[in-house]
Amino acid sequence: MATQFYLTNVGKQAAIDAENLKVTIELAYIAVGSGRYDASQAAENLQSLTNQLARYNLSGGSTQGGTLNLIASIDSTISADIYEIGLLTEDGILFAVASTTDIDPLFTLVNEITTVVTIGMSLADVNSDSISIVIDSDGQIATQLMNEHLAADDPHPQYFLREENNQVNGNNTFNGENTFNNKNSFSKETNTTELKVSEKLEVTGESELSGKTTISGDATFTKNVVAEKNLTAETFIATESISIGAANGGSGTKAINFKPHGNDTVAASISADTQGNLKLNATGEVQIGQSLKSKNGYTALPNGFILQWGFVSFSENGWVRVPGSSDSNERYYEVTFPLAFPENIINVITGLNLKTLNQQNDLGSQTYNPKLTGVTVLTQNMSASVTREFDGIYWQAIGY
Fold first, then answer.
1. What are phi and psi of 125, to 5 degrees?
2. Closest by Cα among 239, 238, 201 to 217
3. Which candidate among 3, 274, 343, 398 keeps its CA 20 to 30 Å from the CA of 295?
4. In what residue span(s) does the Phage tail fibre protein N-terminal domain sit (predicted)?
5. CATH number at residue 386
6. b/e for 26-54, b at 16 or more Cβ within 10 A?
């Protein structure tokens, strides 16, 4: 450790008293705390750390040539950044301290993780012969186990290794901040509190996303997907089912929101409530299947239906006089649908469009022989004594 230790006045006096009495002062503990200060100025007057967090036994050490060497194998019971360290005697006297004023700590302790601290300290003001070290009986064993642990190729096989092409085969839980930078495979149950995928995600098993999930690349799920909270993806493909909503069947409306081009504004959403009502909302148009916006056009409808429409002007070529009719206004026209119905035509309706509001005669429109590709529309003059031309016929057809 590069940090400088400084003797306290009470520590120095304890060493002097021990030398005068021909006894040794016993260093036994290392204390850690969160206080930040300049130890070169504050050490003399300290009798304890300014904010002690924990105290642990020393594991080993020696005094050689005026230098004090100590080892502490800390089986931490806390998780904290350490900014001050104290060396304590068997009687609890603060012998020496080290601290920093920087933002960065001297080291960090993690609960239930062993940390090995080595200390070298020059004893310029006291006789090193008057100092002995009291060690934890398990300290040397713990240090040996730690060294073996660090030397192992995979000391934690149950944990994920941040390496390329990792494959995690067992049941795994990732609760903290974990980064998977390259290709990673999870062949069994994997739990994460929050999942972010920057490229491509492929899931072949059942999927339950109980936390916030963000997938900035393509996502493919080959089996059921259950999302209890927010799920964000660019391209989302599920070959089986997608379930949205709380696992316990919570009430309220759940929605799929679409935010194109990285915009935070919802451009469209699909939602369903507990009564089974499905709602599709959009700031623009709601398009279902193919459509043709034209005077003669069509649009796809829900459940596979197709609606088509058009207008035939009476002035267009193609009108044929009805055989046997004495009225020149009684004619028919072969309408070709803009889109042929794939399977069946259900209904066709027509309506005349007059040239003037007061046409002064009764006209009618009829249909004949509807087919998948078209229908014959006819006109009939109900008052043969009056001959008036009309403007044309509007028609609509529905099928699937």
1. -105, -5
2. 201
3. 343
4. 1-144
5. 2.60.40.3940
6. bbbbbbbbebbbebeebbeebebbbebbe
Nearest to 98 by CA among 36, 16, 25: 36
Q: Which helix (H) or strand (E) holds 13?
A: helix 9-20
Whether residue 266 lies inside any domain: the answer is: no
Segment (H or E) for 41: helix 39-42
CA dist 328 → 28, 212, 379, 394, 399 (Å): 121, 73, 10, 20, 33
Residue 61: strand pairing partners: 70
Alpha-carbon distance of 157 to 162, in angstroms, equals 12
Q: Alpha-carbon Rg of the chain, whole angstroms? A: 43
Residue 218 lies in a domain: yes
Q: How far apart are CA 34 and CA 49, in angstroms?
A: 9
Among 17, 142, 26, 140, which Cα is nearest to 76's? 142
Runs of H (alpha helix) within 137-234:
139-151
Cβ-based neighbours of 111, under 8 Å, separated by 6 or more: 76, 77, 78, 79
- What is the rounded distance in angstroms from the CA atom of residue 200 to the CA atom of residue 180? 12
Do 71 and 38 share a structural domain? yes
Domain that holds residue 164: 157-250
**Residue 61 carries which side chain, given as an amino acid letter?**
G
Contact between residue 259 and residue 216 where contact means Cβ atoms under 8 Å apart: no
Domain count within the chain: 3
| Tens digit of each residue's pLDDT (9 = 90 or more) over 238-282 | 766 677 665 455 555 667 777 776 667 778 888 877 777 888 888
Q: How confident is the model over 351-387, as pLDDT tens digits? A: 988 877 766 666 788 899 999 999 999 887 655 555 5
Q: How far apart are CA 123 and CA 121, in angstroms?
A: 6
Q: Could you say which of 78, 109, 141 is where a domain stops? A: 141
Q: How far apart are CA 82 and CA 77, in angstroms?
A: 13
CB 231 within 8 A of CB 249: no
